[in-house]
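Researcher: Please predict.
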Amino acid sequence: MQIDSDCPSTGEDASEASAHLNDDAISRLQSAGYRISNERPSPSEALPMFHNANGYIPLAPPQDPHSSRISPSTMRLLRRLARQWSNVLLLFVPIGIIAANTDCSDTIVFALNCLAVTGLADVLCHATDEISSYMGERAGALLNVTMGNAGEIVIFHGLASKQYMIVRTSLLGSIMVNILLVLGLSMIVGEMQQRAQSYNALATRVASCLLSLTSMALLIPSTLKQTTTHKQHERDMLSFSRAISVILVVVYFAYLWSQIKSSKCAYKSLVQMEPDTPVNPEIVHIRSRSRNSMRTSLQIARARGYSYPQDPELQLAFNEQLSRAYPPAPTSPTVEKLSAAFELVRSVSWVKKGWPLFLLATSTGLISVCGKYLVESIDHVVDHTPLSRATVGLIVLPAVGNAAELVSAVMFASRKQMDLAFAISIGSAIQIALFVTPLVVILGWGMGVDMALQFSFFEAVTLIGTTVLFLSLVLDDKCSVLKGALLTAGYAIIAVGSYFVPNPE
């Protein structure tokens, strides 16, 4: 998100005109759902020579490499690993596939394929983002609905193998990990960077209503299960679960349509303004590339870290100072030539558009393969490790499938974009609750698998507790470390409790 400004001439008339332009531009932004902050974009100090150009580094100021206890080469390696964590995990894809086809223990196969699916899920998200940027808003929304949670393919493998408890707990755990762990850690990290961050309370209320509806829809069949014993009643309950699933899908698409048509209830990135900075409404540019329809407003590139001045001379000096602060890692001439050739090929129009399609198809296929090996090894892991089946389904598998959301949400929260962190966490929870969960029941219906919304007592209490804790803490528009700690503690309590849940006979 970026606001360009031209300073008017001095004098009383110019000041009045500037104030009028500011009010007009700000009112236009607020009517579109954006919130305006007059505070500095970051607690870190701006570079001296770029103060008037609004150039700043939003994270900590560059450190002198010689004053650090860690060598510069080690720091460069750590920074690169932090940016490319998913690429590192891709190394486990061939290792996990090879291990599954050799005499390796199923426990090792499970661990390797968990790491592989984590990296592939992030690649899939990036590919979906890129493809959506070339499509229209509605077509991109439908693509994201279809492929945005393809990391949940693991659940469909569990459905095909009739591991109903793994499927139920994985769906429930995916909702929990987003609205408790991801949101809680985002609040904690965000408040450590900037105190008293705020978010769109109206969008949060809408999301809370949707999650409350989902909780009611999922719990009603569970109560019927406790009061019926006859087989005919069990079949009626299965039909009831399928009917509820159809209703939830309709509600989700209605929510999707409202998000496309109106931005009032959508999470928007925060517009940062310097005090007394005049704004020309004719050149206000709002960039918004949505990650997906349910994660509304997550359209700012993940890796964006700097705001560059628009003046060419200042931009050149800015780049020079950044180069001195962050010197590139030394590379061999061969690596530089290969990198240049790769970037040249990527710049071709058809390659630029075809590459995300290739990544989408490849990552989806590999997730399916690794997910199959992962599900097949669950029984051995449960029998030969302290992990219970509830822990695997409620904690391990959701953490694997939602690791990318966790990293992205924490990153945006640390950059004072709490709305985007909320868009990731709550949006993912809504999509899983209103779309993925009923879709699993409907697909099971088509496959002849009797998948019903039958949650155990522990699972039902977990769902109720998660919803109540979430509603109690996020209905206002202010973040705090205490709120983040309470959400994270709630997730930790559920994780510990799942360890003591006995395995079904």
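Model: Confidence is low (pLDDT under 50) at residues 1-10, 39-70, 269-311.
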